[in-house]
Amino acid sequence: MRAANGETHESRRKVAEILSQMRDEFVDFVETRVTMLRTELQDSWNTVKSTIPLVAVAATFLGTAFLLFTGALVGLVLAAFPNSAYRWFFSCAIVGLFWGVIGAAAVQFALRKFKLRNVVPRRTLATCASAGRSPGCSPRRRHSFKSALRRRRLIRNGGVLTAWPTGFSTKFP
């Protein structure tokens, strides 16, 4: 036994054994996180897969309703220009402008909502965060992982990193 920092340690284990145990623990850690990620993504995909037919039916009926409503709206605006040779043009232009304004507002709301929603798997990263400062889950690595997922521009060539995306941090702790 030897004393270090006021504590007594046994020195019977070889460095190779310690390194082997560290490697095994790291492999278990990575396998657990990958399994969690796959499970979370599979659950999300199952939810999306079950709603696709409903979305298709809804889109069909809403598209039909939109076309009928647009025709009725053009007919209503057409009545405002009874003696004009360009009454169809003005009616369609006014209704088209109206739909364009509504569409632009919808895009703004959707973009705002999309920016507020986090696309990264939350449960996996929450578990990673609860692990504290473990080697695979430091805050800087979590941030880098999130940025790489968002950009999806990390180029790999046979498992060897050949290019970094713009703004990707190469400094790991």
Q: How many domains?
A: 2
Helix/strand-derived category reads: mainly alpha
Fraction of residues in H or I helices:
55-70%
Mean pLDDT: 75
State the end-to-end distance: 33 Å
Q: Tell me which oligomeric state these chains represent.
A: single chain
Number of helices: 4
Unreliable residue runs: 149-165, 168-173
Largest sheet descriptor = 2 strands, antiparallel
Shape: rod-shaped
Question: How much beta, percentage-wise?
Answer: 5-15%
Radius of gyration, whole Å: 29 Å
Question: How is this structure best described in words?
Answer:
A hairpin with a 2-residue loop joins strand 3 and strand 4. The protein has a two-stranded antiparallel ribbon. It has 173 residues and is mainly alpha-helical. 67% of the residues lie in helices and 8% in strands. The protein contains four helices and four strands; from the N terminus they run E-E-H-H-H-H-E-E. The chain folds into two domains: 10-136, no CATH class; 138-173, no CATH class. The protein has helices spanning 15-78, 87-116, 122-130, 139-151; strands spanning 2-4, 7-9, 155-157, 160-163.
Keyphrases for this structure?
single chain, 173 residues, mainly alpha, 2 domains, two-stranded antiparallel ribbon, two-stranded antiparallel sheet, rod-shaped
Short synopsis of the structure:
By secondary structure, the protein is mainly α.
Task: Set down the secondary structure blueprint.
Elements: E1 2-4, E2 7-9, H1 15-78, H2 87-116, H3 122-130, H4 139-151, E3 155-157, E4 160-163
Antiparallel strand pairs: 1-2, 3-4
Helix pairs in contact: 1-2, 1-3
